[in-house]
Design brief:
single chain; mainly alpha; Arc Repressor Mutant, subunit A; two-stranded antiparallel sheet; 8 helices; 2 strands
Length: about 180
């Protein structure tokens, strides 16, 4: 007796549904959120470097110099919330790449005034925004209550990690290549 496609379909067992995924542990859910944050930051770093050929930190510093002609290294460090030696290294790299110029102050010869060059302005025109990076930009858009809660909760996590408090002063991009 010949079987038809219709009769075979009736006799075949229906496919089993995929086993239900057990509900995620709260810690696993939070870990995935951290991964999403870090991957967004890493993606932005990579996008900037791919599109303009300089690091996201250099673009951020360059954007600050362009927005504040004549800014000093100390002022730039405060604007970026970075140690002055870190910013000095960024400034040196930008100057070597001819993206900024560094001039001694007229009144105080010890001070340095930074200015974006035409070449630096072209880099900024091609660079993806936000110049500050996606994480600082997102944090700036959060309301005060959310930031306060994040600060408190991340403080608890940092305590659990027994993290070196000096790590708070190391930029995320410091170890990116």
């Amino acid at each position: 007796m010949a079987t038809t496609a219709a009769s075979r379909a009736k006799t075949r067992p229906s496919p089993r549904p995929a086993p239900a995924r057990p509900p995620a542990q709260p810690s696993a859910k939070v870990l995935r959120r951290f991964r999403a944050v870090f991957n967004a930051v890493r993606h932005h770093f990579h996008s900037v470097e791919t599109q303009v050929g300089v690091s996201s930190a250099e673009v951020w510093a360059l954007s600050q110099v362009a927005a504040n002609p004549g800014i000093g290294v100390g002022q730039l460090a405060r604007a970026m919330d970075l140690h002055q030696s870190t910013v000095s290294n960024l400034v040196r790299t930008l100057a070597l790449a001819q993206l900024i110029t560094s001039r001694r102050g007229e009144a105080d010869r010890r001070s340095v005034q930074l200015h974006a060059t035409a070449r630096g302005m072209k880099v900024l025109a091609k660079a993806p925004q936000p110049f500050t990076g996606v994480l600082p930009d997102a944090l700036q858009r959060l309301d005060a209550a959310t930031l306060k809660r994040l600060d408190r909760d991340l403080g608890l996590l940092i305590e659990e990690l027994r993290a070196d408090p000096r790590g708070a002063n190391v930029p995320l991009w410091a170890n990116e290549s």
